[in-house]
Amino acid sequence: PYYVPYRRAVEAAGAEAIELPPGTSDLPQVEGLLLPGGWDVDPSFYGEKADEKVGPIDHDLDVTELRLFRQAREQAIPILGICRGQQVINVAMGGSLIQHLEDHDVRGQGRSHLAHTIEVDPSSELGRAAGEHRIRVNSLHHQAIRQLAPGLQQTAKGEDGTVEGVESDDGLIVAVQCHPEELTTDLPWARKLFERFVARAREVRRHQG
Q: Please, what sign has the CA dihedral across residues 185, 192, 150, 115?
């Protein structure tokens, strides 16, 4: 059930969603990879010991998503990262994470509760989807990017400086710290973020065609 909102958002944007369970060794023939939210990333992947406030860790899931991410990069297909997905991308590319942030996980108020405002680079993919440089987002995380990985640009930040969005230099990776899959029925920017991801995937398929 956790992945249902992601599937709905992808399907509403006009694409078929395929779930890849932990342990998947090879990326199937797909046009795009979505890395969803979920458990904390094992800090050993960025060379640190786990703080006592690190939540549940699923080592198999980490290994699977890191491997699928690298395969997607080799195939040069678009990648969309959401919450944990943004963190997996950053770790895979050589960055690190803040293991615990106070006051960011407010899921007690509902998964679609707009908790705070972020500033968005208007020229970024998120900025184009939003059509404005400040948007309200939901906040369901207690970890965030510390050291930004080489090859990534920060495209959005929270009022407290938290990295709220990143993109790769080649434009194929777009990631956000919030959960747009919970907001697609209410907020046009969240819907457009998925639509633009699907459009990028179609474009790649046309070129590879």
A: negative
pLDDT in tens, 59-80: 999 999 999 999 999 999 999 9
Measure the CA–CA gap between 115 and 156, rounded to whole angstroms.
15
Phi, psi of 88, rounded to the nearest 5 degrees: -60, -45
Question: How do residues 137-190 score in pLDDT, each as one tens digit?
Answer: 998 889 999 999 999 999 999 999 999 999 999 999 999 999 999 999 999 999
- Rg of the chain over CA atoms, in angstroms? 16
Cα distances (angstroms) measured from residue 19 to each of 6, 35, 68, 69, 114: 10, 11, 12, 14, 28
Active site positions, annotated: 83, 179, 181
How far apart CA 7 and CA 16 sit, in angstroms, is: 8
Structure tokens at 171: 């434009």
pTM of the model: 0.96
Give all strands of the β-sheet with 33-35 in edge-to-edge order.
33-35, 79-82, 173-176, 163-168, 152-158, 114-120, 134-138
Alpha-carbon distance 6 to 11, whole Å? 9
Token pair for residue 24? 């998947």
